Amino acid sequence: MPSQIPPQWMAYISLILYGLYLIGWHVFQRTKRVYRLFYRTSDIPLKQARLGRILYRHKRDPEEISRREDFVTMDDGFISKEVLKGPEWQIYTLDKVCLGDIGGGAVALG
């Protein structure tokens, strides 16, 4: 006789797994930040955007609007913003990074 997990337990298990995913995602983001600092690719060149390759995608709820945390991406270099105006590209997310007291900002595509 196979045992069946009660539905309310499945909800708890799902939330725990998603929490573990988010912790792993944040650790990966910190690792990317250290990598960018080490290889000096933190700053995005003028008139370019950071290109990210999607390694994994996970949404807690399929009907939610996608967020940055839904994607595990790896840097794939920089690309001219002019290239992104082509018909084969569609902007999915924009991330603005404020530079604090400098007052500037950078836009990256993920």
TrEMBL record:
<protein>
    <submittedName>
        <fullName>ATP synthase F0 subunit 8</fullName>
    </submittedName>
</protein>
<keyword id="KW-0812">Transmembrane</keyword>
<keyword id="KW-1133">Transmembrane helix</keyword>
<feature type="transmembrane region" description="Helical">
    <location>
        <begin position="12"/>
        <end position="28"/>
    </location>
</feature>
<keyword id="KW-0472">Membrane</keyword>
